[in-house]
Amino acid sequence: MKLSHCHNFQDFRRLAKQRLPYPIFHYIDGAADDEITYRRNSSAYDSVDLVPNILAGVEDVDLSVTVFGKKLALPLYCAPTALQRLFHPDGERAVARAAQKFGTMFGVSSLGTVSVEEIGAMIDTPKMFQFYFHKDRGLNDSLMERARAANFDVLALTVDTITGGNRERDLRTGFTSPPRLTPASLLSFALRPGWAWNYFTHPKFDLPHLSTHVSEGSSLATSIGSYFAKMLDQSMSWKDAEALRAKWNGQFALKGVMSVADARRAVDIGCTGIMVSNHGGRQLDGSRAPFDQLAEIVDAVGDKLDVICEGGIQRGTHVLKALSLGAKACSGGRLYLYALAAAGQPGVERALGQLRAEIERGMKLMGVKSVGELRRENLRFR
Q: Which of 34, 310, 337, 373 is 20 to 30 A from residue 41's alpha carbon, by CA?
């Protein structure tokens, strides 16, 4: 299969599966427990139908939105994800350049494999830093100050990862960061010599935001679940989030809000945005899909902060449905990670280009000339 044969999300997934050793593919592809929530995140969009209008004069349509005080050319941005250089040697560099080409925001994770300093110097489009709250307060201070010095626009505190989810695929494959060969995985790595060549001939794998403070994940192999359980502070509270917001003193979001009560509390502590998200189904299996929870959260706080719908997006019509419910924008990780694994920057650009085309085409077929014209009147629930 070639990149030119990739026409949708599932095509990129198939190509990524061909090119990655199976422990690494299943790290991207997997989720918690029975993966019910993971599947529901996408299937939730099927429960709503779009109702188009006609004769609206849609020769020119405007896809731009303003979120966190920044104008984006797309109502969709690349959410922060960890360990990207395991998927392609360019990692975050490839995604950052692609995001800039499409005029949208790129998020960098605390567990990123390219530093905020390098990404900050590389692109001038909006940037988000995903903050994991560690037990090590010195590490927390370092993360914030480095993101600030690199001129990142938004700090997003992840609040749905108080401990690692039960990702059984990772347990079966023996996935760790950095990768560790096991008798079970040896054949898979041997059958992907291209990946092995890239991994061993490029600069040593590292987690540059963490390796100055901890060895886990960079020089000491660990599972992501073990890292979260051991290194993150499970006593994190609303008081800590509010203190972090005050210390950052800029655009600040909570990533992983799923209840109206928590959305209102986010307003109270001064957040400027929230990501309605369940971490791609990788944490609490059996939880609600972000799209299913979106309307009541928008109704409660949508006039007070930016509500982002994050999770399960595979099509431009998914974005249109979320925007019609009142989301300011959408974001996702797998929607570009498979493409990154498949072909690096050209893959991410192809994926973003296809999503942009789908959103634009969908808007024209819906009879709307701008994102702001999308309304709940355009939807019917089954």
A: 373
